[in-house]
Design goal:
The complex is a heterodimer of chains A (431) and B (457). Chain A has 431 residues and is mostly helical. Chain A has helices at residues 3-19, 25-28, 32-37, 43-61, 66-83, 88-102, 107-119, 123-136, 141-153, 157-170, 174-186, 190-204, 208-224, 228-241, 246-258, 262-275, 279-292, 295-314, 320-329, 334-347, 351-363, 367-377, 385-397, 401-414, 423-430. Chain A is globular, with a radius of gyration of 22 Å. Helices cover 19% and strands 23% of the residues of chain B. In chain B, strands 3, 4, 5, 6, 10, 11 and 12 form a seven-stranded antiparallel β-sheet that branches. In chain B, strands 1-2-9-8-7 form a five-stranded antiparallel β-sheet. In chain B, strand 5 (162-172) and strand 6 form a beta hairpin. Classes of the chains: A mainly alpha (431), B alpha+beta (457). The interface between A and B is large, with 124 and 115 residues.
């Protein structure tokens, strides 16, 4: 009679199996370059794939197992995150809905649909699902994370921060600390955000992906205030913990570009794109080619963006905000981009929605309307160089020379390399 | 497994329990961290995993070491399933976690009479630091490479790029006494392999400290002492002899504290003299409570901590407490257990057993489980989930009278939950894959990163 403890051990085991172990092979060759040269995403994704296969086999034998479908849905969501392939989203939804048909009111499946809605940028839906999950399991820290994330993207910051505080009171762990950090960052307190993200890094322990994710976020906080050295150190630590991690390649590319190492930056960004062709990676790769003067290659990359966005939309992801920003930054159909930005902001009235709409209004010549939205975008006091730059250009358009200089200077003082495309523009405008 | 199960019964129970298993899995799995995200919004992880604060086992027992039987040992293991080759950073205690043993010595169920809190700090140092290597430990580097770094033979060796110091604080009647300052105790690092650490046990022995007054302490890596034949169980209870230990080849991080029993008992009596021989205890991990509006330094040395896990009796968290209540259960002290009595009185597992086997299990409500896990005796009015030890009973007692690394918890658990009809039942694994030493800290040397094997990979 082994089953009692077997269950307990299985739990631990699969937790451990998902965690995987970082590849030590990359280290044999020596310092950072070895970690940077490892191309494959580490073992974590192989473990999730194995879990998916195992669950599918079990569900073939036991097709009425609701909790099996819940878990399969969550595993599909994890695959989407690992591969960047949005076709996992409809599969996740199918498994979670089947779980709910078999067991109406299942908190895990409901919460899973909530986090899936977040991934698809359907934040109102995520909020409804998160609240439903909370009514089914009132003290679940994870559910407060889903609700807080949704509130945040809906621009309801006070309520979002309260949800994060509750999450961190119920179960302080890497996920809770990372959210507290983000809230502090949005509130314009980068040093306090760094302190909380350090706690998240420690709490990630030996889990390669969680370590890599939290280290990249910590690096981006350093980057946001112009500390390139500490930022690069965190990105390299992320790659050492999780070789091939594309977010770290992408972030390191930004640092290398800031240092003027364009060939290296293009190489790093290409690795990110090869691993997961996310729109923001492809866009940055195009920007790097353009900055180096290779317009043809830049255009080839930009053309890919449209294809990827359509793929995302086909799998239920809303991409209006991201598409609008990309189009505006690359001079593509600005009036259409303005319409996208209006629609996106209605769906997602966050400071990001406000900021992109403000930028779209400026780029289509409505500087007065742009100012109102830019004020909203900066209402939390967020120290975001790009948002400050947008505001500076809006003030400039309105003829407010002093205000323009002040905002552009603040953007560059935070991080003189905040954008491959716009930092040079800000510098020229200040001359 | 001495009880013979019919093939059909075995099949049914395996299927019936899959549901429970999956419910448990969800807790551990979560959707995981997000290595990718579809677009610009930030998807922070929603993981439940917290390995540095995850207590795998807690032990409390009277020492079985020769001439030490007046001592009581408190041991907690953290970080599940340490793969020995898990570089470059290997496995460390978390400087932001408070690791604590809590003891009740007056049978009131409140484990706050004596506590021992362990806190760690990281020191980045030595050749690894000066050369900027992305490795925690190096040693035995051949001269041909130019840089000569000798093997790590001491806790002061240059190759120890990361060194963890720790402090132990005793809390008695709300009064905090530092037993060992941060500067002098060093946690034993993970066992990287024979080139880097040619005599690991000699290194580990340096991390065994005598604090005076008969108190000993150890913090560092050990072999995971838990044992179970998991693969056979899930192959429709296709049990075997000899069975294989599913946890073979995995390590844990251990904190072990040995004290004279008289430092723990209410009347300060030794095991043979005390009139108050009962101790109740649990281990906990706590993390700093942070808030959005909290200050910059909030956390590391702030006064507010949240208990993220507690462990007294094995398997209670995994098999008794329902998934939806686990977060809250972990944050509460054990003397709040009356809020969760329903889980004990109507254990899902006993129900499954009786349905599947048709064998009689004790009738609900299961006051026998409450008495075994939550009370010092049937007349005890309170409910507190503590591991209880009668220090005057012989050192060789077994769980639930204290718990030793050698105790066969899977066998005992099924016998307790199943009741008399399951007497003698158990799995085929009755000992750990490594011989458990009968000397402090009572756990075997960890598997090394280079030559590790899993008997059941």
């Amino acid at each position: 009679m082994v089953t009692v403890a077997a269950l307990a051990a299985t739990v631990t085991l699969l937790g451990g199996a998902l965690r995987g172990s970082s590849s030590s092979g990359a280290l044999a060759a020596g310092p950072t370059t070895a970690a940077e040269s490892a191309n494959a995403v580490g073992s974590g994704s192989a473990d999730t794939a194995a879990l998916v296969t195992g669950l599918q086999a079990r569900l073939r034998a036991e097709p009425s197992d609701a909790q099996g479908y819940s878990l399969l849905g969550l595993a599909y969501e994890q695959r989407a995150r690992e591969t960047g392939d949005p076709s996992w989203y409809p599969r996740a939804e199918g498994a979670l809905r089947r779980a709910l048909r078999l067991a109406p009111g299942d908190a895990t499946a409901t919460g899973g649909l909530g986090s899936l809605a977040l991934s698809r940028h359907r934040f109102r839906e995520a909020l409804i699902l998160g609240r439903r999950a909370l009514s089914l399991a009132p003290a679940s820290a994870r559910t407060y994370g889903v609700i807080g994330d949704a509130l945040l993207e809906l621009g309801r910051y006070e309520a979002a921060f309260r949800a994060f505080d509750t999450m961190a009171r119920l179960k302080p762990n890497a996920g809770a600390y990372a959210r507290i950090s983000y809230a502090r960052e949005l509130s314009g307190r980068p040093q306090d955000a760094i302190a909380a993200m350090r706690l998240a890094v420690e709490a990630a322990g030996d889990q390669p992906e969680a370590t890599a994710w939290t280290r990249v976020q910590l690096g981006k906080l350093y980057w946001s205030v112009g500390d390139l050295g500490p930022a690069a150190r965190e990105y390299r630590a992320a790659l050492a913990a999780f070789p091939g991690y594309p977010y770290a390649f992408d972030a390191l590319a930004q640092v290398q570009a800031a240092r003027g190492h364009m060939v290296l930056a293009i190489d790093l960004e290409s690795r990110a794109v090869d691993a997961i062709p996310l729109p923001q990676f492809v866009s940055q790769l195009g920007d790097l080619y353009r900055a180096r003067g290779d317009g043809a290659e830049a255009r080839r990359q930009y053309e890919l963006i449209g294809v990827i966005q359509r793929l995302l939309v086909a799998n239920g992801v809303k991409t209006d905000l991201e598409t609008a920003l990309f189009d505006l930054d690359h001079g593509i159909r600005p009036h259409h981009a303005l319409e996208l930005a209006r629609r996106a902001r209605a769906e997602r009235p966050s400071i990001d929605g406000d900021d992109v709409l403000a930028w779209a209004l400026l780029r289509t010549g409505s500087c007065g309307d742009a100012l109102a939205y830019s004020k909203r975008a900066l209402r939390l006091g967020t120290l975001d160089a790009l948002k400050l730059f947008h505001r500076g250009m809006i003030e400039r358009c309105l003829g407010h020379a002093d205000a323009a200089r002040a905002y552009l200077s603040r953007a560059l003082a935070l991080n003189p390399h905040f954008s491959i495309v716009w930092s040079p523009v800000a510098k020229r405008a200040l001359r | 497994m001495t009880a013979v199960l019919g093939r059909r019964n075995a099949t049914v129970i395996a299927l019936a329990l899959v549901g429970v298993a999956i419910a448990l899995l969800v807790l551990r799995l979560g959707p995981g961290p997000s290595p990718a995200q579809a677009a610009s919004h930030r998807e922070a992880p929603l993981i439940a995993n917290d390995p540095p604060a995850d207590i795998t086992d807690f032990y409390m027992f009277r020492s079985t070491e020769p001439a030490q039987s007046d001592k009581v040992d408190l041991v907690m293991d953290v970080i599940p399933f340490e793969e020995p080759s898990g570089g470059p950073n290997y496995y460390n205690f978390d400087p932001s976690v408070a690791y604590t043993f809590h003891v009740d010595n007056n049978k009131d169920g409140k484990a706050e009479d004596v506590s021992f809190e362990f806190r760690f700090t990281n020191e980045i140092r030595g050749a690894v630091n000066s050369l900027g290597l992305p490795l925690a430990y190096v040693g035995g580097v051949p001269p041909a490479t130019g840089a000569v770094i000798p093997p790590i033979t001491s806790l002061d060796s240059a190759g120890l790029g990361l060194r963890q110091h720790y402090t132990i604080t005793m809390i008695k009647n709300g009064h905090r006494t530092v037993l060992s300052p941060m500067t002098d105790k060093i946690a034993v690092p993970s066992n990287v392999g024979p080139r880097t650490m040619p005599d690991y046990e000699a290194l580990a022995a340096q991390g065994m400290y005598e604090l005076g007054g008969g108190v000993r302490v150890f913090a560092g890596q050990r072999d995971d002492p838990f044992f179970i034949d998991l693969g056979a169980a899930f192959d429709t209870l296709n049990l075997r002899s000899p069975a294989t230990d599913m946890l073979s080849g995995f390590n844990v991080n251990t904190i072990a504290l040995e004290l004279p029993a008289s430092l723990l008992t209410r009347d300060h009596g030794s095991p043979s003299q005390t009139n108050q021989p009962w101790l109740g205890a649990y281990a906990s991990t706590s993390r700093p409570r942070v808030t959005v509006l909290g200050g910059h330094g909030q956390g590391h040395h702030g006064s507010h901590f949240v208990q993220v896990q507690r462990l007294a009796n094995p398997l209670v968290n995994e098999l008794i407490i329902g998934t939806k209540d686990k977060d809250r259960w972990n944050t509460l002290d054990p003397d709040q257990e009356s809020r969760f009595l329903d889980y004990y009185e109507n254990p899902r597992l006993a129900l499954a057993l009786s349905l599947v086997f048709g064998a009689p299990v004790p009738a609900t409500p299961r006051h026998d489980l409450e008495n075994a896990l939550l009370k010092y005796g049937p007349s005890d009015p309170g409910y507190s989930e503590l591991l209880r030890l009668n220090v005057s009973s012989a050192p060789g007692a077994s769980w639930p009278n204290g718990r030793r690394p050698a105790d066969d918890v899977p066998d005992t658990a099924i016998q307790v939950v199943g009741g008399p009809a399951f007497a003698g039942a158990g799995d085929g694994v009755n000992v750990n894959d490594k011989v458990l030493p009968n000397v402090f800290p009572f756990l075997a040397s960890p598997w090394d990163g280079r030559n590790r094997v899993h008997a059941n990979p």
